[in-house]
TrEMBL record:
<keyword id="KW-0597">Phosphoprotein</keyword>
<keyword id="KW-0479">Metal-binding</keyword>
<protein>
    <recommendedName>
        <fullName>Box C/D snoRNA protein 1</fullName>
    </recommendedName>
</protein>
<keyword id="KW-0690">Ribosome biogenesis</keyword>
<keyword id="KW-0862">Zinc</keyword>
<comment type="subunit">
    <text>Interacts with FBL, SNU13, NOP58, NUFIP1, RUVBL1, RUVBL2 and TAF9. Interacts (via HIT-type zinc finger) with the RUVBL1/RUVBL2 complex in the presence of ADP.</text>
</comment>
<comment type="similarity">
    <text>Belongs to the BCD1 family.</text>
</comment>
<dbReference type="GO" id="GO:0000149">
    <property type="term" value="F:SNARE binding"/>
</dbReference>
<comment type="similarity">
    <text>Belongs to the SEC6 family.</text>
</comment>
<dbReference type="GO" id="GO:0042254">
    <property type="term" value="P:ribosome biogenesis"/>
</dbReference>
<dbReference type="GO" id="GO:0051601">
    <property type="term" value="P:exocyst localization"/>
</dbReference>
<dbReference type="Pfam" id="PF04438">
    <property type="entry name" value="zf-HIT"/>
</dbReference>
<dbReference type="InterPro" id="IPR007529">
    <property type="entry name" value="Znf_HIT"/>
</dbReference>
<keyword id="KW-0832">Ubl conjugation</keyword>
<keyword id="KW-0863">Zinc-finger</keyword>
<feature type="region of interest" description="Disordered">
    <location>
        <begin position="340"/>
        <end position="366"/>
    </location>
</feature>
<keyword id="KW-1017">Isopeptide bond</keyword>
């Protein structure tokens, strides 16, 4: 076989037959690798050149038409994408701004020859966006002043910073001003400008405005060469609180609180506080700074000028920019000074009318109040109050010359001279109402009551006027609406009368024509003959036409991806349907006169048509079910043909419904106009079938998503990915291919959203779902609405709510489920612990555990904390902080309850053990041994419980091991919010304190049990005659040593020293309390001093033998209380009050009742001794301090 020519091989490798053609340069290649090499070698982009020349012959081909169509479609999509990016995604501009200002329309114009010609003329494309009332007022005001404001795009920073507003009441513009203070050489940031924004009214001096901006923002304060001086210490801005400045008699200076007289009654001279800024600054008006290297041109303005003086005739970029230089500062090289524009000068010469007759020059010291603005405009803004210097032509408060009134009526924007220079009341109608308690603080403020009464009366009148105006507008609007309704009813009645006249004329015309009945009969016969002839031809061709349709449907079955015969089939079937409907209608008109077999014959004749229609409907259904797939695969032609079919059927259905309604409402006229009923006679409902197909297709996909979701609760988002893809394909690809009135995207969204709602609600109520599924559904709406917003649908457009706003219910149910498991676990553990505690004496061996250190521990503590951590993990799997926080709150509550339950349980057992020990004291030895064994087990449980509490809070930093509570807090930290964590730390600290308190309580109860059982019989011998001959203290010390030795290995090491200290304190308290023993008496002849010394020495010997010398030393210091106790016993009568006073000074909580018992135990006691002590106690100034050991001795 001959070798192929190179021209027939791949143009890159010249080795294989080509498969691909480059859309740009038409080079052919064989593989992807060759395509890449071609692009790299030839620097070819591989994209079709839309501007390349195409011969006319190729334009008329299918390829050329597709080329143009795809090009136009690409342009349209690009424009839509750019428009959506600018308007919806970023919000930079509004849709109104994208529309052209003018459009060209075709109109007819009559020429000189009398004929009409088509001409193009321009007209506004659309009405401009409607301005708000405030914007319109500001626009008109600026137009009157000759100020041109250049607006930036809506999302630009300078546009956002523009807070310029105008007062609706006074018409004063409050400008947003940009102050650029230029740094001098040698300063930080030399050559740069510090930028500050402030609000300035148009009639405020620039020097005064800059001074206020400096004070508020810290500009220039404390810098060398800057002088800002106040002539009076009274702060100007204190007046901005809404008080009428013209009627105030006194004001309070904020710095000292001193009240200052402002105006005396009957005194024409006003005492107004003014501020003066020395001429320390130069001001220049110019454009805002840019990043350009070009010079910035500025114009010098006088510090005494106002914005109303300098801005007319100028162009402002959003708001004015004023450059500030200190006097003597070198002019920056990047600024260029230019002269004032002549047009601006002429605008500046326009002054307020009514100034001082005779050409007098007036100077005003303006005192500007602090301005407070709300969000809507100048509401609450205090106007300028001006003090007029004495001179000719001075206008009194409330007076105005006639010329001013006339000029003000003609030019509402001009501020009258009497308004600019006469003292006026501050406008505070829109501001907050001051409290009378703030206005009348001192007795001298009562003089203000008449002025305040007038002020509030004025305000009430203004409010009443506004209410009357609003009510009048509402009444006018209502009246206009009622008038419009009346006019509409009249118009409807006129139309009805005209129609009746037309019908009457038609009826009368029949009687006016001779032989009308005959003519009408002949005409009807002619029409009937024509109809019968047409029906005959249709019936004869019916079978052949039906065969053609079936053949086309068969071809479409073979090519279901394109269905080229969809439109022809639809057209032919429509004609055949109409033919059948007309024939059936003719038979129905005959009524009883018709042959009974005629209807059956027609049904048999047209029977094949129903089968063919079902065949066609099957094709349409397939297309409707797979319409999105066709769009995704760019089979746009088939989508368009399908849309044509649906649109034709929809129009047909609307026509049939209209005719049916008309015939139903006008039965008497139906016989006259039978011709209008030609065509389809029944509603076919293809549009409803199309929507039902959308529903069925979505339901099938939701069923698949349901199975996937049930298998894995975390895959709900992935299972619903098709949902958003379908809607996006409809919006981006299908919308341009179907009629706009369909609003096909909204149709799909309504169907899909309703199915999504039913699916999620059904899953929530389905018994197969678990808590994980429920929680995933609860978190789904937020993501759902966010994605739908990207598609252009707001949450309020999607009704009903996707899960009926049941997120809180689902989350709360999941949280309650975890808490329920938590309660069941804790109740089960507590019940087991109660059984173990109750069976402590009867169980074989000990029912306690020992940890790796040999410490006694209960069996369920580890299981409890493990269960808590598992429940936290379960809550954290929800990925919702509120669920975790609710569960952790419940855990904190249960842990506190568990502490209280343990304390009550051990207290009950200890009380029962003490009662059993008291009852067994007189019982048999066997019974006493059983009680001792149960008592020993209870002591072990107290030790184990104390160890458990320490294990909860013991953070072993040396071994890097945290206690249960700290580990739990660390577990929770990553799953909750920072705000909740602060509150959780407080709960953890409270639990930590509770664990320590419960541990200390267990040791205390242990010590009390020792004294109640082991030492109860010997403690009654102290300070009685038997005490002198016994060695009770030595026996107690030996018993203490045994207890400490026995429990040192099983008690937590941090509790051993506490255990010893508690035993020593308990022994001391009970020892001192033994002065109340029956028979306790200290006789001067008995060696009670030596015996007390011997007891204390015995105790000290035991304390000194302790392993921790610090503990022994601390206990000895506590036992030093026996020294003042001994002084109370052996002091003589005269020194006894001093001994008591010293005792009370050292131990402020010394109980006087115990002192009385000590005194009564002396053999020389008498009432005078006690009275002397009580008298001395009354003279002592008690200074409370920390609790001492004597506070426990009663």
């Amino acid at each position: 076989m001959a070798d192929p020519l190179l021209s027939t091989l791949c143009s890159v490798c010249n080795a294989a037959e080509p498969k691909y053609t480059c859309p740009r340069c038409q080079r052919r290649s064989c593989s992807v690798e060759c395509v890449k090499n071609h692009k790299a070698r030839s620097s070819c982009s591989g994209k079709r050149d839309e501007t390349a020349y195409v011969p006319v012959s190729e334009l008329r081909t299918v390829k050329g038409i597709n080329h143009d169509y795809n090009f136009l479609q690409k342009l349209g999509l690009s424009m839509e994408r750019a428009e959506r990016l600018l308007i919806e995604d970023r919000g930079l501009i509004s849709r109104q701004e994208l529309r052209p200002e003018t459009i060209q329309v075709i109109t007819w114009k009559k020429g000189r020859d009398g004929r009409s010609y088509k001409v193009l003329r321009e007209k506004p494309a659309a009405m401009p966006a409607k301005q708000t009332r405030s914007e319109s007022l500001l626009h008109n005001k600026l137009k009157q002043l000759g100020i041109e404001v250049v607006r930036a795009p809506k999302e630009m920073t300078r546009r956002k910073e523009n807070k310029t507003i105008v007062s609706r009441r006074s018409g004063v513009i409050c400008w947003q001003v940009e102050w650029l203070t230029v740094w001098d050489e040698g300063e930080r940031g030399a050559g740069m400008a510090k930028r500050v924004l402030s609000k300035v009214t148009e009639n405020m001096d620039l020097g005064q405005a800059y001074r206020l901006a400096s004070l508020q923002n810290g500009l220039g304060g404390g810098k060398e060469g800057v002088e800002v001086r106040e002539e009076e210490p009274l702060a100007d801005w204190w007046l901005g609180g809404g008080i009428n400045s013209s009627t105030m008699l006194m004001m309070q200076e904020p710095s000292t609180g001193r009240w200052i007289d402002i105006k005396e009654d009957g005194d024409d001279e006003e005492k107004t506080t003014t501020t003066t800024t020395t001429t320390a600054f130069h001001f220049f008006l110019g454009p805002p700074l840019t990043g350009s290297a070009a010079m910035t041109q500025v114009t010098a303005v006088d510090p005494g000028d106002t914005l109303r003086d300098v801005l007319p005739g100028t162009k402002v970029a959003e708001f004015p920019t004023i450059y500030v230089l200190r006097r003597g500062q070198k002019f920056p090289p990047w600024l260029e000074l230019k002269p004032r524009d002549e047009a601006a000068k002429r605008q500046t010469k326009r002054k307020a009318v009514g100034g001082g007759g005779g050409g007098d020059e007036r100077r005003a010291k303006r005192v500007t109040f602090e301005q407070s603005f709300d969000d809507d405009g100048c509401d609450g803004m205090e106007e300028d109050v001006v003090e007029e210097e004495a001179g000719e032509g001075q206008i009194e408060d409330g007076e105005m010359e006639d010329e001013e009134m006339e000029e003000a009526a003609q030019h509402p924007s001009i501020i009258l001279d009497s308004e600019r220079h006469a003292p006026r009341r501050a406008i505070m109608d829109d501001g907050p109402v001051p409290k009378l308690s703030d206005l009348l603080r001192h007795p001298e403020d009562l003089d203000k009551i008449p002025a305040l009464k007038l002020e509030f009366s004025r305000k009430k009148g203004a409010v009443d006027s506004q209410l009357r105006t609003g009510l009048r507008e509402q009444l006018d609007t209502t009246q206009a609406g009622m008038t419009g309704l009346g006019d509409g009813q009249k118009t409807v009645q006129l139309i009805k009368d005209e129609m009746i006249n037309i019908d009457r004329l038609c009826s009368e015309s029949q009687t006016m024509i001779r032989d009308f009945a005959s003519i009408n009969l002949v005409s009807q016969a002619h029409r009937n003959f024509g109809a019968v002839e047409a029906m005959r031809r249709d019936l004869e061709s019916f079978s052949d036409r039906l065969l053609v349709v079936e053949d086309m449907l068969r071809q479409d079955d073979d090519d279901k991806e394109n269905m080229p015969n969809l439109l022809p089939c639809h057209y032919e079937l429509t004609q055949l349907r109409n033919m059948r409907d007309d024939a059936t209608e003719q038979v129905q008109r005959l009524g009883e006169e018709a042959d009974p077999g005629l209807a059956t014959t027609l049904d048999d004749y047209f029977g094949r048509l129903d089968e063919t229609i079902d065949w066609f409907d099957e094709h349409v259904g397939i297309l409707a079910m797979n319409l999105i797939s066709l769009v995704v695969n760019e089979n746009n032609g088939l989508v368009v043909r399908f849309a044509v079919v649906m649109d034709a059927e929809e129009r047909s259905d609307r026509r049939v419904l209209a005719l049916q309604e008309a015939l139903r409402d006008h039965q008497d006229m139906a016989a006259r106009f039978r011709g209008i009923t030609d065509g389809p006679k029944k509603v076919r409902g293809y549009k409803q079938k199309f929507i039902e197909a959308i529903r069925i297709g979505a339901e099938q996909q939701l069923e698949q998503a349901r199975d996937e979701f049930l298998d894995d609760a975390s895959r709900l988002d992935k299972a619903m990915k098709w949902y958003y893809n379908d809607l996006n394909a409809v919006k981006m690809g299908m919308t341009p291919l179907v009629p706009r009135r369909w609003n096909v995207t909204k149709t799909y969204v309504d169907v899909y959203h309703g199915l999504m709602h039913d699916f999620l609600v059904g899953m929530m109520d389905d018994g197969e779902t678990s808590s994980a599924h429920t929680l995933e559904i609860a978190s789904f709406p937020e993501k759902y609405y966010k994605k739908m917003a990207k598609l252009g649908f707001r949450p309020e457009d999607l009704t009903p709510h996707v899960i009926d706003n049941r997120e809180a219910e689902l989350v709360d149910g999941f949280r309650k489920l975890i808490v329920k498991f938590l309660d069941e676990w804790i109740d089960r553990i507590l019940a087991q612990e109660k059984r173990d505690l109750a069976e402590r004496g009867t169980a074989e061996g000990s029912n306690l555990d020992q940890d790796e250190y040999g410490y006694f521990r209960t069996k369920n503590l580890v299981a409890l904390w493990r269960m808590l951590r598992e429940q936290v993990d379960a809550a954290a799997n929800s990925e919702r902080a509120d669920v975790v926080e609710g569960v952790v709150d419940a855990m904190f509550l249960r842990l506190r309850g568990r502490q209280q339950a343990w304390q009550r349980m051990l207290e009950d057992e200890a009380t029962a053990a003490c009662e059993a020990a008291a009852a067994a004291a007189a019982a048999t030895p066997g019974a006493r041994d059983a009680v001792v064994d149960g008592f020993q087990a209870l002591q072990d449980w107290l030790v184990a419980t104390a160890n458990d509490q320490i294990a909860c809070v013991d953070d072993n930093e040396d071994e890097g091991r945290l206690g249960y509570l700290s580990s739990f807090r660390q577990k929770v930290e990553s799953s909750v919010t920072a705000g909740y964590l602060e509150r959780a730390d407080d709960e953890v600290a409270s639990l930590r304190d509770g664990y320590l308190d419960l541990s200390t309580w267990c040791i205390n109860r242990f010590a009390q049990l020792i004294f109640a059982v082991d030492f109860k019989s010997v403690m009654s011998d102290f300070f009685t005659p038997r005490w002198y001959s016994s060695a009770t203290m030595k026996q107690i010390s030996a018993t203490f040593d045994e207890y400490v030795s026995d429990y040192r290995q099983v008690l937590h090491h941090s509790l051993v020293d506490i255990f010893v200290e508690i035993l020593a304190d308990e022994l001391l308290v009970r020892y001192l309390s033994c002065v109340r023993n029956k028979g306790a008496k200290f006789r001067r002849s008995d060696p009670f001093r030596d015996k007390i010394f011997a007891d204390v020495a015995t105790a000290f010997d035991f304390f000194a033998s302790l392993p921790n010398p610090d503990v022994g030393h601390s206990i000895k210091q506590t036992w030093r209380v026996t020294e003042p106790f001994l002084r109370l016993l052996d002091a003589d009568r005269d020194s006894l009050p001093d001994a008591f006073a010293d005792f009370k000074a050292a131990y402020w909580d010394l109980n006087v009742a115990w002192v009385e018992a000590v005194l009564r135990s002396r053999d020389d006691f008498d009432r005078a001794m006690l009275n002397a002590v009580l008298a001395r106690a009354a003279q002592i100034d008690l200074v409370r301090g920390p609790e001492t050991i004597m506070g426990r001795v009663k």
